[in-house]
Protein 1
Amino acid sequence: MRIAILDCSPLTAWTITRLLPPGVDYDVLPTFEEARRVLSEAPPDAVLIGLTAGRLPWDDLLKICTSCRPEIPYLLYYSLTALPAGEPVPQAVADAAVSPVEIRQLRLAVRDLLDRVGSRDAAAQSPG
């Protein structure tokens, strides 16, 4: 299983990598453009997206994820370089995000994401 981690904060990306179980390969993507390229050209099994300061088209990344076949499951979280008050984020994005400050919640969300990928892969491999 290979996941991509989009986060401009090396500390947050490192924290995320420590939550992954052994055997999960990952690529840390420090820029939005790099993430867009990787998702389009070499889609990972899942992607973790750290919402950061800056007016970025988060919806574009989510559209890439949902348009891939199979869809790329994603997890949105607030990066340690969190959004300043009043920073516009699409409501659907804000509603889906978890906070890395709550490390237990983030660990559970990452585990759930990996379980979804495992279940999807198992279903795709079963005869039927």
Protein 2
Amino acid sequence: MKFVLLLFFSFIFIAMLMNSGRKRGMLSKDADKAVTGLATAMRYFLFGLLAVGAAAVAVLIYQGS
């Protein structure tokens, strides 16, 4: 669980850094497009991880009652 939380927060931190560099205009057009695609992929991964965690919690609650 600690690994998943560490991965989650590191992804958020990296996405914030990449987004701030993109907004300041520090990147070329190709790098900007790559950062946008990577941030989107990371966002989908985090939402998927959140959905799996919610499903696991729902199963544990169901099993406990």
Protein 3
Amino acid sequence: MKDKFPEIYKNKIENLKSKIQNDFYYHADAKTNEDKKRNDDESQVRNREEPDRISLMKKINNIFKRPDYVYQADVNIMYKNGENIEEKIVGVKDNYLISKDGSRIYIDNISDIK
């Protein structure tokens, strides 16, 4: 499936001819050290937050997949501020859980759910 393209497509721009090209030209090799450091910092922060969110979403999906779930599930929600609440949830949509009384419980505010 990989076709060999003529050499004209493989040429690399060695030097930039004007200031405008320098400002608007992007190439993977043209990243500055500051950009690389900023991207590394952002990816480290994302990597710390992602597993927590992923494991939380797995827990929520497992609650709704249980055989005893019919219409509502009694759950214990631990918020990030340390508050612990028993709640009856009936569904999940986008970024929040829907409780039996119709209130929204945002997933971003939850640290753990059982």
